[in-house]
Amino acid sequence: MHYFLAGAASLHALFMGAELFPWQAPMLLGKAIKKLSLDPQFSPSDAKFTEKQQKLVAAIVHNAGIYNGIVCGGLLWAAFAGSQGHDVARVMLLGAAAAGIFGTATLKSPFTALQAVVGILGLFII
Predict the structure, then answer these.
(1) pTM, whole model, 2 decimals?
(2) Alpha-carbon span 24 to 47, nearest angstrom
(3) Which of 3, 94, 109, 123 is surrounded by the fewest CB atoms within 10 Å?
(4) Using an 8 Å Cβ cutoff, are 12 and 122 in contact?
(5) What span, in angstroms and rounded, lies between the C-alpha atoms of 43 and 23?
(6) Span 47-62, pLDDT tens digits
(7) For residue 95, what are the CA distances in angstroms to 9, 12, 43, 59, 92?
(8) Cα torsion at 61, 67, 70, 76 (round to 10°)?
(9) 6-26 burial, b if ≥16 CB within 10 A, otherwise e?
């Protein structure tokens, strides 16, 4: 179980890095713009954000990065806290599963689906 929690924490640390850096235009934001430009429903001009829109979307993505950092920290603490970490692990994994399910339903992203699967699997393991 400790290895699973540490692995799940590492996954959230990777998500955090992709959502926070580089600061002005996070990697995840670049992927979203690229995905939009490939979608036949959008014209190339729709796939470009104005500077104001980019700052707003970057702030939203950064907030998701902070969430993933908190989940990472909670999972790491739970992994090494012994039996008293089980409750914290349940809360963190439940939050990750809920965010992953919602993200998969709204964003149609394989990354949020992975987050949901890890959260659900972790709840069964604990």
Answers:
(1) 0.81
(2) 18
(3) 3
(4) no
(5) 27
(6) 567 788 888 888 888 8
(7) 13, 12, 36, 21, 5
(8) -90
(9) eebbebbbebbebbbeeeebb
Q: How far apart are CA 84 and CA 3, in angstroms?
A: 16
Q: Which residues contact 51 (CB under 8 A, 6 or more apart)?
A: none
Query: What phi and psi, each to the nearest 5 degrees, are found at residue 23?
Result: -60, -45
- What is the longest distance spanned by two Cα atoms in the chain? 54
Structure tokens that stand for 3 in this block: 């290895």
Matching residue, tokens 């902070």? 66
- What secondary structure letter does DSSP report for 39? -
Residue 82 DSSP class: G
